[in-house]
Design a protein that fits this description.
CATH topology of the largest domain in chain A: Rossmann fold
Strand content of chain B: 5-15%
Domain AAA+ ATPase (chain A): 52-219
Largest sheet of chain B: 5 strands, parallel
Oligomer: heterodimer
Distance between the termini of chain B: 73 Å
CATH class of the largest domain in chain A: Alpha Beta
Number of strands of chain B: 15
Shape of chain A: globular
Largest interface: A-B, 33 and 42 residues
Shape of chain B: globular
CATH topology of the largest domain in chain B: TIM Barrel
Number of helices of chain B: 24
Helix content of chain B: 40-55%
Strand content of chain A: 5-15%
CATH class of the largest domain in chain B: Alpha Beta
Protein name (chain A): ArgK protein
CATH superfamily of the largest domain in chain B: Methylmalonyl-CoA mutase
Number of strands of chain A: 8
CATH architecture of the largest domain in chain B: Alpha-Beta Barrel
Distance between the termini of chain A: 31 Å
Number of helices of chain A: 12
Strand order of the largest sheet of chain B: 1-10-9-8-7
Keywords (chain A): Chaperone, GTP-binding, Hydrolase, Nucleotide-binding
Strand order of the largest sheet of chain A: 4-2-5-1-6-7-8
Order of helices and strands of chain A: HHHEHEEEHEHEHEHEHHHH
CATH architecture of the largest domain in chain A: 3-Layer(aba) Sandwich
InterPro entries (chain A): AAA+_ATPase (IPR003593), GTPase/Isobutyryl-CoA_mutase (IPR052040), P-loop_NTPase (IPR027417)
Radius of gyration of chain A: 19 Å
Largest sheet of chain A: 7 strands, parallel
Number of domains of chain B: 2
Chain lengths: 312, 652
């Protein structure tokens, strides 16, 4: 595909998403994932603009029941009449570059239901992080879907990545696994917007995990909600979780997401060296916070580039 | 000890795993088989019956009457057993997720014949753990499934004392690639999980009786010397578990009792006549030594790798047993291997390995909790086996060595296999609808079933009542699904190790991915109810190792679900696997559901040669059968197909 052709295709798909055409989603994702069609992807993102949908990051270690939880949440959202897109990011094999995607609890949904879109993405070379196209995809899909979920694996590393892409980050833990608690106390993990304890059907261990997390958050002076749920029949707490996510979404800070997104793109392009030229991550975040709130992400990215090459 | 027995032993029970099309035609087949000298029945149910769906359910499409007989209600069971005196018959039923239900239908069929339940003898397979590991006909999550198993054991040990309520299967573990050590350890761990679950539901003093009712269903491969050693090792280990873990002292209860179906995994599509000698040698593995001889034997037919066997093929398998039991002098001697250095050494080796493996499973909390561990271990062993065959290290005569052959005269006009009348499914759909119309209101029976399922009561009374009321298989399982929820077992593919795949293949995948601008993405799908996922799993693992992005969502998907995933996921190619014979219906369904999306489809599985042209005409790009054992070559062809379809050129 030539650049001009790719730009045209990107602009067309972006416009369809902006108009709420959900059937454009598969082709839009194909284009965004095409490494040789950067122009097309850029055209798509700018034609789509910033969608009004709620982008939610759901992350947690393997085996805690994220996908089962997501299945239950999906049904809850659908029963509220919301259209939902899910971007499930899986790690790639270092050795072959290949990846097994979708090897998890299947998110059950009616194949005839056009208001649901589920896509797996290989994380590529970035351990525990997002696939390169995930953030752009989430933003574009937020035009046509009410809720866009980014599901990632990990605790302690990938929340930062998800926070750059999502309005709301939920970390999922299971009872009797101390990792999240330790990471939270030690500051390895940033305080998420919502904490979810799965497997409420276990009873006492789930309640204990919830109390421990509350105590840790209290000590940190944070007031993120902690919810205990059971995603298997009979489900518990799913509606309350959907409510908590929506409440956070109402107060979401889009400006912050735009700024962090621009910085993430910058680091992806220029690496640690570029970050040093900006005076380090904290200085860069502070500087971004001083910029005009109305600036969109590509503009912010351009400003960062200019700071990186003051004489260029 | 004399080297002769005072009198010749009685032969083992001889069965043929049989059933297809309808209850009436299967009944006719059973009667013919019994007339030929078969001494017990072995009922093969179709996949909808095994997984708890009626013939008119969406997921049943293409599967009704294929790999077994459909039994949707007590009327079907009565026809299936018509004219067979159930008080005298010994019936083995290969039924797991829905075992309690089919057993209840059998009890009701006996009632209708005037035979009380305490007169019945037979076996229900009822080993749910191996369904998660290998066979795929589970219906409910592990917790409720184990409860159903325990309920049945608790019921039969009191009311149907000659019934074997659970047949712990090492059989399917071997089919999934298990080594002998894994087979021994995983099946013993499963038996312990069942016994521990039953212990919560019967008084402690009944546990020795429960232990004595647990039987096994094993496999035997062509390495018949070590396979025999495996059975001797199981005998030793079982007795030890009984004494030490469950405090059993009754010698009779401590005996390791097993039935067997010999290996299908090693049967070949190429030069299929060679399978006959493989089956004979495998039969020796389970009969040679008197101290570990099978109680019941069923042999596969020579043409299983080609499709469904015909009655004549099954007769041949029965005659092998009869020659072995009645013509040879095998049954005139005590154990042939007592004092054998070789046999004792092999047994010791296996016991050491199995005990270590048992500890690993125990460390993970026992067989139920260790399902993901065991599944990954099996996928890994299977991958190693395929790699040995590909490299030629493990010889398969006619497949990777001695492949020159004359044309086989055995593949006659019908292709040498049974083809089920495609009209069977429509008839069954109509029949079950007619049944529901005339049988009256069953809502009370279903409500009671749901109530009991949600409580801690034994499920059997409500199940028997539902059977008598005329509830259908799909309704019974549906009521339980309402309470228990459904489940997806781990695929094991994520954990399988990644060996050094063919470099040229990886280079080619990388080149095409680069040319496409994104990594070549494949969806590996298993449409329908067929749970034999070993082949699909191996393809998924190899594709990942070759550098593909692989979407594999496990078993039991409808064509609409697969097509939707393929489109949403933006895959470049779809690989479908079917072993149950439903490819004729389901593959074209997937292509139709793609609704014009330009994604090429390749198909693998047990696909008779005669069906290939129709599949190609429906739009399938390539068909792979068991004779295509070189996975790397399949991968090369798939990459080439993707390259050609996307106009990025063939390999330089």
């Amino acid at each position: 595909m030539g650049d001009g052709e790719a730009r045209g295709r990107g602009a067309e798909l972006g416009a369809r998403l902006a108009a709420g055409d959900r059937s454009a989603a598969p082709a839009a994702l194909n284009l965004l994932e095409t490494r040789t069609a950067r122009e097309g992807a850029a055209a798509l993102v700018s034609a789509a603009g910033e969608g009004a949908g709620h982008v939610i990051g759901i992350t947690g270690p393997p085996g805690v029941g994220k996908s089962t939880l997501l299945s239950a949440l999906l049904h809850e959202w659908r029963s509220r009449g919301l259209a939902v897109a899910v971007l499930a990011v899986d790690p790639s094999s270092k050795r072959s570059g290949g990846a097994l995607l979708g090897d998890r609890a299947r998110i059950e949904h009616d194949p005839a239901d056009r208001d649901v879109f589920i896509r797996s993405m290989a994380a590529g070379e970035r351990l525990g992080g997002l696939a390169p196209a995930t953030r752009a995809a989430a933003q574009a899909l937020a035009n046509a879907f009410d809720v866009v979920v980014i599901e990632t694996v990990g605790v302690g590393q990938s929340e930062t990545d998800v926070a750059e892409a999502a309005d709301t980050v939920a970390v999922v833990v299971q009872p009797a696994s101390g990792d999240a608690l330790q990471f939270l106390k030690a500051g390895i993990m940033e305080v998420p917007d919502v904490l979810v304890v799965t497997k409420a059907d276990l009873g006492a261990p789930a309640r204990r995990a919830e109390e421990d997390l509350r105590a840790a958050l209290g000590a940190l002076g944070a007031d993120a909600p902690v919810l205990t749920v059971s995603a298997i029949a009979p489900t518990q707490g799913i509606a309350a979780l959907a409510d908590a996510l929506a409440t956070h979404g109402e107060n979401r800070d889009r400006v912050r997401v735009r700024r962090l997104g621009a910085l993430a793109d910058f680091v992806h392009e220029h690496g640690e060296r570029g970050l040093r030229a900006l005076g380090g991550r904290r200085a860069a975040v502070r500087w971004l916070a001083e910029q005009d709130e109305s600036l969109d992400e590509p503009t912010l990215y351009g400003l960062l580039e200019r700071r990186n090459q003051p004489n260029g | 000890m004399s080297h002769r027995l005072p009198e010749r032993d009685r032969p083992w029970m001889m069965r043929t795993y049989a059933g297809h099309s309808t209850a009436a035609s299967s009944n006719e087949l059973y009667r013919r088989n019994l007339a030929k000298g078969q001494t017990g029945l072995s009922v093969a149910f179709d996949l909808p019956t095994q997984t708890g769906y009626d013939p008119d359910h969406e997921l049943a499409r293409g599967e009704v009457g294929k790999v077994g007989v459909p039994v949707a209600h007590r009327g079907d069971m009565a026809v299936l057993m018509d004219g067979i005196p159930l008080g005298e018959m010994n019936t083995s039923m290969t039924i797991n997720a829905t075992a309690a239900w089919l057993f209840a239908l059998y009890v009701v069929a006996a009632e209708e014949q005037g035979v009380p339940e305490d007169q019945l003898s037979g076996t229900t397979q009822n080993d749910i753990i191996k369904e998660y590991l290998s066979r795929g006909t589970y219906a409910f999550p592990p917790g409720p499934s184990m409860r159903l198993v325990a309920d049945m054991v608790a019921y039969t040990v009191e009311h149907v004392p000659r019934w074997n309520p659970v047949n712990i299967c090492s059989y399917h573990l071997q089919e999934a690639g298990a080594t002998p050590v894994q087979e021994i350890a995983f099946s013993m761990a499963t038996a312990c999980a069942v016994l521990d679950a039953v212990a919560e539901r019967v008084p402690a003093e009944r546990m020795p009786a429960v232990f004595g009712r647990i039987s096994f269903f094993v496999n035997a491969g062509v390495r018949f010397v070590s396979e025999h050693a495996k059975l001797r090792a199981m005998t030793v280990l079982w007795e030890q578990l009984g004494r030490e873990r469950y405090g059993v002292t009754d010698e009779k209860a401590l005996r390791f009792r097993y039935g067997v179906q010999v290996n299908s995994l090693g049967l070949t599509e190429a030069q299929p006549e060679n399978n006959v000698q493989r089956i004979v040698l495998e039969a020796l593995a389970v009969t040679l030594g008197r101290n570990a001889r099978a109680r019941a034997v069923q042999l596969p037919a020579w043409n299983e790798a080609l499709g469904l066997p015909r009655p004549w093929d099954q007769q041949w398998a029965l005659r092998i047993q009869q020659v072995l039991a009645y013509e040879t002098d095998l049954l005139e001697y005590p154990d042939l291997f007592e004092g054998s250095k070789v046999m004792d050494g092999l047994v010791e080796e296996l016991l050491t390995g199995a005990r270590e493996e048992l500890v690993r499973v125990e460390d993970r909390g026992g067989a139920v909790e260790a399902v993901p561990y065991m599944k990954a271990a099996l996928v890994e062993s299977h991958r190693e086996r395929i790699a040995r065959i590909e490299s030629g290290e493990q010889v398969l005569v006619g497949v990777n060595r001695f492949t020159e052959t004359e044309p086989s005269p055995m593949l006659g006009e019908d292709g040498g296999i049974l083809v089920v009348d495609p009209g069977v499914e429509a008839q069954a759909r109509e029949a079950v609808r007619a049944w529901r119309e005339q049988r009256g209101d069953v809502s009370a029976a279903l409500d009671e079933l749901r109530r009991v399922a949600a409580s801690d009561e034994n499920i059997m009374a409500a199940t028997l009542a539902a059977a008598r009321a005329g509830v259908t298989t799909g309704e019974w399982a549906g009521a339980l699904r309402d309470v228990f929820g459904s489940y997806r077992a781990p695929t094991g593919v994520g954990e399988a190790a990644s060996p050094a795949a063919d470099e040229a293949l990886r280079d080619e995948v990388a080149r095409v991915s680069e040319a496409l601008g994104r990594t070549v993405k494949i969806l590996v799908g298993k449409p329908g109810l067929d749970g034999h996922s070993n082949g699909a799993e191996q393809i998924a693992v190899r594709a990942r190792d070759a550098g593909f992005d692989v979407v594999y969502e496990g078993i039991r998907l409808t064509p609409a679900q697969i097509a939707r995933s393929a489109v949403d996921e933006g895959v470049h190619v779809i690989g479908l696997s079917i072993l149950s014979g439903s490819h004729r219906e389901l593959i074209p369904d997937v292509i139709a559901a793609l609704d014009g999306a330009d994604i090429p489809v390749v198909v693998g599985g047990i696909i008779p040669e005669a069906d290939v042209p129709a599949l190609k005409a429906a739009g399938v790009a390539a068909v792979y059968t068991p004779k295509h054992f070189e996975l790397d070559r399949i991968m090369h062809e798939i990459v080439a197909l993707v390259a050609a379809r996307n106009g990025v050129g063939a390999a330089a």
